[in-house]
Write a structure and sequence with these properties.
Length: 268
């Protein structure tokens, strides 16, 4: 029996696969001769921002804000704080933030008291920020650009809160750069689908499944002709003494500073 297709698809499955296979994270962009960002046509930027705002959003709230970085000094400082130099040279750069401040202000302006829901704020705020940012990125890719999400905001959160004057209720999730690629990265692997897509209930992968997934992923860690070791790369990020442990206190401090901390204090 053939599956029912409700409407004539606008794209074939092959075209959809090809679009997503064309995605590459790109960190080097074409610039003007003096190394400054190459501006995008206004209508391209407008389409990307339109796509961002068309993202679905829980409870109609749109709990996110995009800080578009245009001032070269601000770009340079954000590049430094995030330890991602291409923030300064990309055609466009944004800091994608969760933002629960605006909805609180809408309530206040309408004469209603906002509730207290810091955990919900993080949950839905990050969801909204990601959906809007990824819509922006896919729109950019449809227009022929490539980009890079930058979780490196966690390397300098306090500095970003100051620099971008982010009030309580607003917290960077990541930065996002877009431009014309000046490098051709390879298609980077993903773990095998059975580890990601579960059927009706969660299934823990076996050790053998995980070893196989690691082999599939190894090329993502290859550098300068040296074969890659994905588990070693993950250790640097997520292992004991790795980068994520180093980032944890800064994130907790920023969550507290922005009024988004729902946890109990230790020892209370
Ligand atoms: C939330 C998020 C944060 C990321 N942070 C960084 C970053 O700080 N710097 C960077 O160069 N790449 C960053 N990346 C890009 C990933 O390294 C990249 O998506 C991954 O290696 C897979 O490569 P691909 O996108 O080309 O398939 C980030 C991606 C995501 C989704």
């Amino acid at each position: 029996m053939t599956a029912e297709v409700p409407v004539r698809p606008a794209r074939t499955p092959e075209e959809v696969r090809a679009f997503y296979d064309a995605h590459r994270t790109v960190r080097h962009y074409r610039t003007r001769e003096d190394g400054t960002p190459l501006p995008l046509p206004e209508e391209h930027l407008d389409a990307m921002l339109h796509a961002a705002q068309r993202a679905p959003t829980d409870a109609t709230a749109q709990l996110y804000s995009l800080i578009r970085l245009s001032d070269p000094g601000v770009r340079a400082r954000v590049a430094e704080l995030t330890t991602n130099a291409h923030v300064a040279s990309a055609s466009e750069a944004f800091v994608v933030c969760l933002d629960v401040r605006r909805v609180g202000r809408v309530l206040e302006v309408a004469g209603h008291a906002p509730g207290h829901w810091p955990a919900i704020a993080v949950h839905f705020g990050i969801g909204d920020a990601v959906m809007a940012g990824q819509n922006l990125l896919t729109a950019a890719e449809m227009l022929g650009y490539q980009g890079c999400w930058i979780g490196g905001v966690l390397n300098g959160l306090g500095g970003l809160l100051d620099l971008l004057e982010l009030p309580a209720g607003v917290l960077p999730f990541a930065a996002l750069t877009v431009g014309i690629p000046a490098e051709q990265p390879p298609l980077r692997p993903r773990v095998p689908r059975p580890l990601i897509v579960h059927q009706d209930r969660y299934r823990d992968p076996s050790d053998e499944d995980l070893r196989h997934a690691t082999e599939v992923m190894n090329p993502i860690a290859a550098r300068a002709g040296k074969p890659g070791d994905w588990a070693r790369l993950l250790r640097m990020y997520f292992g004991q003494g790795g980068g994520m442990e180093a980032r944890e206190p800064g994130l907790v401090a920023a969550l507290k500073r922005q009024g988004l901390w729902a946890g109990e204090e230790l020892g209370q």
